[in-house]
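FAQ: What does a multi-protein file look like?

Like this. Sequence, then tokens, then the next protein.
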Amino acid sequence: MGVGVGDICAGRSAERKRQKNAAAGLVFMIMFLVSAVLSVTCPGMFGAIGAAEVSAAGTVPEFDGWVQDDAGLLSAKEEDALEKECARVSEVHGMGVYIVTTPDFGGGDIKNWQRQIFTGYGLGADCADSGVMLAISMAARDWGLVGFGEAQGAFTTYGRERMGELILDDLSDGEFYDAFTRYVSMADDYLTAYEEGKPYTEDRHYGEGWRIPLIIGISFLLSLTVSLTIVLTWKKSMNTRVRRDGALEYMREGSFHLSNRTDRFLYHTVSRSKRQKESSSGSAGSGMRSDRSGTSGKF
């Protein structure tokens, strides 16, 4: 009985398939054994990674869009508005602007968790791996702000800490939508300043440019004008009175007689002022922790 060429090729193909399956099974078995050994000898390794993945978005993380509100801090309308604004700013500047909230990020430094999220989900893929992320964890009331790629030039250490100062009150009061809105607005300003070659640093502060002195000056002039107008109007309505040089001229003659005069001590007043305690300035005094590309703290 003869054997055809097709039968020989089929036999060889089946043999190669069995060999591949056997090799794959061997590799899987080796990986399983290595994982088992590491989980026993280094339990913290897999615990930290697992905590980051689970706390990102429940049991199965699915980061979709620019805003991921796993802690449920926003209404559907608020999340949609922030999603659109983040998309707009990201498109204008070519750098991603992200917001992520979680019930619990798993402990440790929230900045490292953010870096895992950014890398693990491939965020910034459409923006040359550049962007900024604000993260909120409700378990221990942690917040973190981390820049990635080219965006690190826009979000300097001063810039991140300044942003933290300005959104901290809203975060503490539970006004999360207001805090996130201000974050996106400031991110737009930071990126614009960076593109103009003038990022916000210790030498160029945010929110302290020419606009504030101008607004104060205009407000002062308007207040002065209104006050002067009111005083002049009152003065014109009092033109029937004649000014006297002394108080005695207003007293009727013989209407007042002083029969006795004494000095009597009634009471005394003690004023106390609180002594101000010396406090250190900078990020240490404000409870913020900054590294090369990120800043974190409590709210």
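And here is the next protein:
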Amino acid sequence: MIEGVRCKLNPSDLKKLKRQLHILALPPREQTRFVNGVAREIIKDSRKNIRQQRTVSGSAMEPRKNGKRKMLRKMGKGLIAKRTGRFRREVAWKNGRKSQIAYRHQHGVTQKITANQQNKSLKSRERNERPASRTIAKQLKAEGYKLPVKGKRGKIRLKRVSIKWIMQNMTNARAAMLIHILRGDPSPRPRSWEIEIPERPFLGVTPDKADQFIVDLAQQTLSQIKRA
């Protein structure tokens, strides 16, 4: 079942489309091709929005808060046009997970994340198991971390370590835990928190562009009929 973001022609567009089809007097098969063509143009334009990181209105898409990677990089794949009526198509995804992601970014939502979800995340696990980054190593050193080592007589002494040593011998998770202990932060880790996902409406077209799609496709269809 296809769920998530769907792009439909509004009533005004439908009237214009039906008028164009009436003028051309297309047989049913050609009418279907015409409507499918409009849907394909919407999919094509939506993919272009993702590549150029812009919204339907042409404004710049809000970038991610952390990192420089583009938003919605893989969302252009898997888009399909589902027939919901003679002159109606819905642009959506076969993949339910992609549909959910698209909906959040298309409309902007407040999403609740739990600690269990975060821990189960593959990316989160991979990040925690990686060698300590330079940033977190600097933080740990700044907190005055010293490595407990055994002396010649078996006594434990504390030895200062370098940022390089921390990066080579600790994981991100280990270093973060030690920072938490050294800071003496008594507050427990929150079990859940909320994140704000801003609107990034990339799927669809403006009314003017939809009109232009219809006019261009109608002209192309008419030209093909004349050549036949």
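Q: Is there any per-entry metadata?
A: Some entries carry free-text notes. For the entry above: The chain has two domains: 11-108+198-227, 131-186.
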